[in-house]
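sorry for the late reply, my laptop died twice this morning and i had to redo everyting from scratch. anyway the thing you sent over, i finally got around to it. pasting the sequence first so we're on the same page, its 91 residues, then the predicted structure underneath. double check i copied it right bc i was rushing
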Amino acid sequence: MVFVTKRSSGIGRRMESVLARLQVRERSRVKILRIDADRRPEVVRKLAVKEIPSILVYKNRKPVAWLRGRATLGDVDRALARAERHAARNS
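ok and here's the structure:
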């Protein structure tokens, strides 16, 4: 999972608590990479991120879900479930 945000993003700062809970609950299953759009604009361009914050969910190095803007823990859980279904279909 890739979380793209900026330090100046209030929504992004609030989403940090959602991701912290997820990281504790799913520590053996989910890795979260945080990218600061101000510090790594080349990565943001490469990922084609248009809205900050955004969460990109990958399974087997392939994007399977994209959450733009504010996301709740439920939103992230649904995106992870889509990733699992995608992996099951492609195995």
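The helical segments are 10-25, 41-47, 73-89.
thats about all i looked at so far, will dig more tmrw
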